[in-house]
Amino acid sequence: MAYLNNIDLNEFKKMEDIIEPMEAMLVVKSQDQALRRAKLISQLKEGRIGRMKPRPISEGLLVNCRLHAGGDNIINTENASWVRRFPEPRHMVPCSRNSFLLTEIGKINLIGPEGSVLDSFTHPYFAFLHTVELNASRDRILVTSSGYDAIIEIDLNTKNETWSWFGWDHGFNPNEDGVYFTNTRKKSELLARRGLNARYIDPGEYNEQGLLTAARTTHPNAAIYNPYKEESTVVASLGRKGRIIEIEKSTGKYSLLIDSLAPMPHGITPYNGGWIITNTTEGELWMLDEDFNIQQQIIVNRLSGKPEVALQYEWLQLVKAIDRDTFVGLDANRGIIIFDLAARCYSILHPDPNWCIQDILLFRGEQVWI
Fold first, then answer.
1. For a designed S-S bond to 247, which of 51, 187, 234, 276 qualifies (C-beta 3.0 to 4.6 A apart)?
2. Which residues contact 365 (CB under 8 A, 6 or more apart)?
3. What are the pLDDT digits (tens) for 69-79?
């Protein structure tokens, strides 16, 4: 698919000093990147993405380290300032000056100095959590619970649910096996009376992974409050079909914004009066205007540095804007890519090859930069 003003990073100059050394926190989902790469390639060859069978929950890391470009320097636990261990963490956002919100597979943690856990937030339908976002008033969080095809809002003070959206209730039913999921027995009984294959999903019968990935109907993997509409809507990416939708909080009704992404996009984020999103399995960054019309495509997939076993397959986990022209990308096959669109240059930093990095926060002094 071609767009005007596409930018190919392979045409940029490779450099080692795009940024000054800086403090960073890396969210590492697991420490088995090579194994995950092999399984993913096998799935992509078969035209599917997602687990068909249960698997053990992986041990992940929160790593505080210094990022610096150059040579064969490897970012690992040996040169980290500190490391904390969590079951499959995926996303982190600042909460206050000295605290952060971190997802792990089945709950949200409030993280304090040096990775200490100050508090946690749970919900019966929290499973396979991906992103967490803080509202403008900083009193509620929006959580994507991929394991149950749900987006759930929690009040930080009471820890109670204030809003939720299950794909099952809004047209994303049945799944590919013809099963209609519900989150109450009553809904299941109503569907069964219509002769449908209905199943009530009792979270007490599942572990923190929720439904198998291949069984889910939407697999939301990011959800944010829409700042351009005073947070009256939620914008979400649905990994299952590569869609971006906008949900009215007052009604739960959704509108389809984009349906041309490859499966498993990530990182929908406001940027420069519009949006950016990572087209993960195509190795691209899309830049959109406020109405989600594509303006530019940044092509990462032609850069060298991939392991030979990755073949033609891409997994650009996430790209975040450092400023208007500078970005940091987490590439599962190449490393941490920092690129400057104005200067037309890039650097690649090399983390431990076993790390499956999901998110990054950069610091300038004591302030969170991104």
1. 234
2. none
3. 655 568 899 88
CA dihedral of 122, 127, 128, 132, whole degrees rounded to 10 = -40
pLDDT, tens digit, for every residue of 82-134?
A: 999 999 999 999 998 889 999 999 999 999 999 999 999 999 999 999 999 99
Residue 217: alpha-carbon gap to chain centroid: 17
3-state class (DSSP) for residue 173: coil
The DSSP secondary structure of 111-127, one letter per residue, reads E-GGG-EEEEE--TT--
- Say what the pLDDT of residue 55 is: 83
Rg, the chain, Cα only:
20
For the chain, helix, strand, coil in percent to 5 are 15, 45, 40
Backbone angles phi, psi at 148, to 5 degrees: -125, 25
Angstrom distances, CA of residue 188 to CA of 21, 150, 193, 211: 55, 17, 9, 17
